[in-house]
Amino acid sequence: MHSSTITHSDPYKYQSGFGNHFSSEALPGALPIGQNSPQVCPYGLYAEQLSGTAFTVGRAGNQRTWLYRIHPAAMHRPFEPFLSIQNKVIGNFDTNNTVTTPTQICWLPFEIPESEPLDFVTGLCTIGGAGDTALKSGLAVHIYAATESMDKRAFSNSDGNLLIVPQQGRLDVQTELGPIMVAPNQIAVIQRGIRFSVGLLDGPSRGYILEVYDNHFELPDLGPIGANGLANPRDFQTPTAKYEHTSDSWEIVNKYQGEMFAAQQDHSPFDVVAWHGNYAPYKYDLANFNVINSVSYDHIDPSIFTVLTCKSVHPGTAVADFIIFPPRFEVQQHTFRPPFFHRNCMTEFLGLIHGEYEAKKDGFLPGGACLLSTMTPHGPDTKTVEIATMHELLPRRICEDSMMFMFESMYQLRLTKWAAKHKQRDHNYYKSWEGIPIRFNPDKI
Ligand SMILES: O=C(O)Cc1cc(O)ccc1O
Ligand SMILES: [Fe+2]
């Protein structure tokens, strides 16, 4: 076992691998053999294709799944506005509904409201984002804070792919393709259009969501690292088919062009008896990340810690990278070891799952966040600088019992008014860099 592995027993059966052509059947023989659409499918099921890429995308990038289900997904009443959360979630970030500032921003933990019952969907709030869902270009960062399980309610997002990072509380996620259990220190990706319903296994729950409009998440190329390392494909887990056949009322909430709609239907949307294809949700346990780093000198760019990337059309430049700062050994010599001072053409959104961040000793707490925008200067805080310039450079473990992550994007984020004016916003964040000792002496090299 890894020394810092956090283990959670997980009741579900998964298929292992990243981007594989999977197949799964909850009843034997439910998958048609040799074709996708027989005149009548086994067990009287209906065949339905779910396309995650345009039909014509090249073979290497094409993503689609065939579902064999009791009811076609089309059997629902019309979508109506879902008013209860209309203003908390947005998808298009223009100057009317958002604000912006280049200043460094930090939020203390986003509270889980106890006064009103909220589920994963009604407890969603958008922090910020960029772009336009209609053009399939941009991204959004959301927080969920929920006190109850979704009850006969499913959610489907037409706007992008969701990367869910639970921070507090395990989630029991029923998806059309089967159930996934995702705990803090694990992530789940649920792609555009896949219906899912979130149960809370540990009461009040909170987490972060990165939504990308442009493209799918993929594993980063490894270049000279070679064939193995970082997040290994076999550690990704995709669910197996599980269905229910009910005639109760369900509500399907659909985020479309940043607005929420709901449609009613008389059966469970989780009636897929079998499926095959490569467009399927997955989970990944961050404890499995194989950390690569410098064993000689200097602090390496955090791109070495990329778990997943969503590529843009600009080579080497991501719509968004999901990067983690896992427990690891730190051994570099004659080096300032912490994250360097820097300004970045990319935007950095930082969140903390548990523990503390190596470069900020105070005020960055699990469930909180920091935003460092394009070219906004930042780096280790005063206390970190003092310690790092003095301490003996012995090999040591760092970030033990902690997990910080970063959503790094080529886009410039605008903030919702909710996030910009949030009472948990720490207006003293700039003081992190106050009092850094000025040691310049032109007479002493
Ligand atoms: O700024 C940050 O806290 C994130 C970060 C970490 C690091 O190790 C190097 C660069 C960087 O942006
Ligand atoms: Fe940074």
Q: Mind telling me the CATH class of the largest domain? A: Mainly Beta
The count of β-strands is 30
**CATH fold label of the largest domain:** Jelly Rolls
The percentage of residues in β strands lies in 35-45%
Strand order of the largest sheet: 6-30-8-9-16-11-14-22
Global shape = globular
CATH architecture verdict of the largest domain: Sandwich
Cofactors and ligands present? Answer: 2-(3,6-dihydroxyphenyl)acetic acid, fe (ii) ion
Cofactor: Fe cation
Domain Homogentisate 1,2-dioxygenase C-terminal: 288-438
EC number: 1.13.11.5
GO molecular function, one term: metal ion binding
Can you walk through the features of this model?
The protein is mainly beta and 445 residues long. The protein contains two helices and 30 strands. The chain folds into two domains: 14-286, Sandwich (Jelly Rolls); 289-426, Jelly Rolls. It has helices at 382-390, 417-420; strands at residues 14-16, 22-25, 46-51, 64-69, 80-81, 98-99, 105-107, 124-132, 137-146, 153-157, 161-168, 171-175, 178-182, 186-190, 196-200, 205-212, 217-218, 237-239, 250-256, 259-265, 272-277, 282-285, 306-311, 318-325, 328-330, 347-354, 369-372, 396-398, 403-409, 414-416. The strands form seven sheets. Strands 6-30-8-9-16-11-14-22 form an eight-stranded antiparallel beta sheet. Fe (ii) ion (FE2) binds next to loops.
Short synopsis of the structure:
This protein is mainly beta and 445 residues long. Helices cover 3% and strands 35% of the residues. The mean pLDDT is 96.
